[in-house]
């Protein structure tokens, strides 16, 4: 990921959050700060994105290198909620990373990744019990939990003797299912192509290790020598062969 482009978007989001900007205000500020190639991109293409969410994602997509699945997964796993970072700030930033997925990722599919990175076990438990349907619902829910003072509780897990079950981690296997299937299909195609190319490369020589037939003289039809060395030829007889 191009940290300059993503950092540009993150900076506007942080200022907008602290100053209570509207999405329209964010979009205006973002456009005014574009220069050179980025400004040309907005004039030719970017202006078709009328809201901040789609415009910012399009900007990052156009000016970032395409991530492999392994690199993207590493970014997702490493992005966790930081100390003193609000749930909304964390959700917006991590969802932007989700949108950089090598394959399309719907909002609902991104929710497990957001839940997995929350700092408070109480928040993880509450979100897992009733997962939000989309990003706005996730943000509204995390803000509600923070306002209720859940974030002020101890980070220590509840006492097992109180018969309170521990929070269940989100099922990330389901979230990765689509990616795994596509990767397996791609590998199968490459292996099939490699097998065909090796088969063609053997040519007419037969399989490796096959024994060659003995040489046969076309003059006397005996084996063991070529026609040029055949003893029936006069020149070979006179030479003592």
From TrEMBL:
What keywords appear on the UniProt entry?
Metal-binding, Zinc, Zinc-finger
Under PROSITE patterns, the record lists: ZF_CCHC
Q: List the GO molecular function terms.
A: nucleic acid binding; zinc ion binding
Q: Which organism is it from?
A: Daphnia pulex
Domain CCHC-type intervals: 217-231
The identity of this protein, by name, is CCHC-type domain-containing protein
InterPro entries attached to this UniProt entry: Znf_CCHC, Znf_CCHC_sf
């Amino acid at each position: 990921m191009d940290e300059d482009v993503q950092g540009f978007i993150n900076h506007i989001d942080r200022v907008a959050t602290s100053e209570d900007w509207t999405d329209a205000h964010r979009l205006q500020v973002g456009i005014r700060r574009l220069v050179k190639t980025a400004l040309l991109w907005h004039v030719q293409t970017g202006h078709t994105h009328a809201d901040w969410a789609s415009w910012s994602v399009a900007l990052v997509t156009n000016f970032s290198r395409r991530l492999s699945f392994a690199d993207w997964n590493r970014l997702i796993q490493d992005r966790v909620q930081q100390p003193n970072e609000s749930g909304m700030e964390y959700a917006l930033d991590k969802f932007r990373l989700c949108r950089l997925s090598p394959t399309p990722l719907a909002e609902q599919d991104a929710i497990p990744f957001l839940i997995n990175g929350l700092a408070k076990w109480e928040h993880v438990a509450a979100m897992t019990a009733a997962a939000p349907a989309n990003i706005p619902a996730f943000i509204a829910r995390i803000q509600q939990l923070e306002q209720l003072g859940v974030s002020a509780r101890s980070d220590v897990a509840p006492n097992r003797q109180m018969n309170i079950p521990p929070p269940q981690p989100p099922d990330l296997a389901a979230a990765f299912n689509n990616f795994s299937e596509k990767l397996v299909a791609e590998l199968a195609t490459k292996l099939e192509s490699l097998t065909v190319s090796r088969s063609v490369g053997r040519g007419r020589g037969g399989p490796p290790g096959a024994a060659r037939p003995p040489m046969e003289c076309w003059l006397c039809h005996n084996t063991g020598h070529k026609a040029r060395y055949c003893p029936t030829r006069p020149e070979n007889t006179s030479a003592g062969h």
